Structures are given as C-alpha cells and as structure tokens.
Amino acid sequence: MNHFSSNIAFLLKKGSLSQEAFGQVIGKKRSVIGSYIRGESQPNIDTLLGIASYFKIGLDDLVCKNLSRIDMDKLIPIVYEDEKHGKLDKKVLMEIREKVDYVYKYVSKSRAKSDLDNLRKLIEEKENSNIKTGG
C-alpha cells in the first residue's frame, strides 16, 4: 500500500512546514506539494529520494509505512524490558514518553488514542515505581 500522500502531510505537520516552504526546499511549487498530499500526483524517483533524504528516512518508509501510526506492539515491550530486571532506565522512559506525547497530538482515531492512554498510564506507573525505589 502506498502511504506517500498521508506521510508527506504528516511530515510537513510534524516539521511545522508549509507546503510553500517545503516546495522551496525541494524545488517544487506549492500546488505540486498540495497535489502530492491529495494523492493526485506522485513525485518522480529523484524527488522521492530528495524528500526521503530531507526528512532523514528511508524511501521504503516514506512510501510504504504509515508514519503517523504508532506500533504499540513495539513500544510496550520496551517499557516492560527493564521491569524484568527490577528497574527502568530513566532516559529510555523519558524518550518513550516524549514519543507517545508527540504522536498523541496527531492521532485522531479513538482506538489509537485509547492505546496511547493505556501506554501513558503504564509509563507513569513505572516512573512512580522508579521514584519510590530510587531507580
């Protein structure tokens, strides 16, 4: 499945870039960027490579992955990983919290928000248990 149009919209929003500003970066008119976002046209391979390079992501991720979705199956094991050893690394926990909070701003589906709320609660519980145990 091609996710390019939704990904370009997500990346522009994430980077607080206007269509016009991004168009200037990659040498395209605002109307062309708008047509990419609406799925009315697709860039050529050179433009795709430039876009992927600008956002520092792989071409396959830009086209094939839905970048706005969070893969809960990957995040939850990270939170539980250190639990096996009795504590969570504060730096990792902070990074996960920042990512969850950031993605939460852009998620609109209630199911995804529910999953993120559950993950936020889990992180808060782990943070509180680390404070209590001095971890």
Plain-language structure description:
It comes from Aquimarina muelleri. One of its GO terms (molecular function) is DNA binding. Pfam families: HTH_3. This is HTH cro/C1-type domain-containing protein. InterPro entries: Cro/C1-type_HTH, Lambda_DNA-bd_dom_sf. The protein folds into two domains: about 5-65, 434 Repressor (Amino-terminal Domain) (Orthogonal Bundle), CATH 1.10.260; about 70-135. The chain has helices at about 5-15, 20-25, 30-35, 45-55, 60-65, 70-80, 90-105, 110-135. The mean pLDDT is about 75. The longest helix has 24 residues, at about 110-135. With about 140 residues, it is mainly α. It contains eight helices and no strands.
Concise summary:
This protein is mainly alpha-helical and 135 residues long.
Strand and helix map with partners:
Layout: H1 4-14, H2 19-26, H3 30-37, H4 45-55, H5 59-64, H6 72-81, H7 90-106, H8 110-133
Protein name: HTH cro/C1-type domain-containing protein
GO molecular function: DNA binding
Domain HTH cro/C1-type: 8-62
Low-pLDDT runs: none
Characterize the main sheet: none
What overall form do the CA principal axes indicate? elongated
Number of strands: 0
Order of helices and strands: HHHHHHHH
Give the overall average pLDDT: 77
Number of contiguous helices: 8
- The portion of residues forming beta strands comes to under 5%
Rg calc:
18 Å
List keywords for this structure.
135 residues, 434 Repressor (Amino-terminal Domain), mainly alpha, 70% helix, 0% strand, 2 domains
